[in-house]
Amino acid sequence: MTENATHLLVAGMTCQHCVRSVTEELTALPAVQSVDVDLAPGAASRVTIRSAGPLDDDAVRDAVHEAGYELVPQA
To answer: How many CB atoms neighbour CB 50 within 10 A?
Structure first.
């Protein structure tokens, strides 16, 4: 099984509580194996999701939104 890495930018995260909220929501998605957050208070935080297969973009966006944050569009 191939591991996939998905990289996101998430706006609005300021503390470890934010990190836990986003991690909890993303970890609940099917196939997600781990979530790593590089917290950047005052800027977009970099989030890396490792999964056993491809992730549904809408499900990822919804999970981040459910945690109370927004994805930052990447160029």
So the answer is: 14
pLDDT in tens, 17-34: 999 999 999 999 999 999
* Cα-based torsion angle of the residue sequence 51, 20, 37, 3 in order, rounded to the nearest 10 degrees: -10
> Mean pLDDT by 10-residue block, N- to C-terminus, for the chain (75 residues)?
86 96 97 97 96 94 97 85
- Distance (Å, whole) CA 69 – CA 12: 6
Half-sphere exposure of 11 (CA within 13 A, CB side): 5
Rounded Cα–Cα distance for residues 30 and 49 (Å): 12
- Report the phi/psi class of residue 7: left, alpha or beta, with left for phi > 0 and alpha for psi in -120 to 50: beta
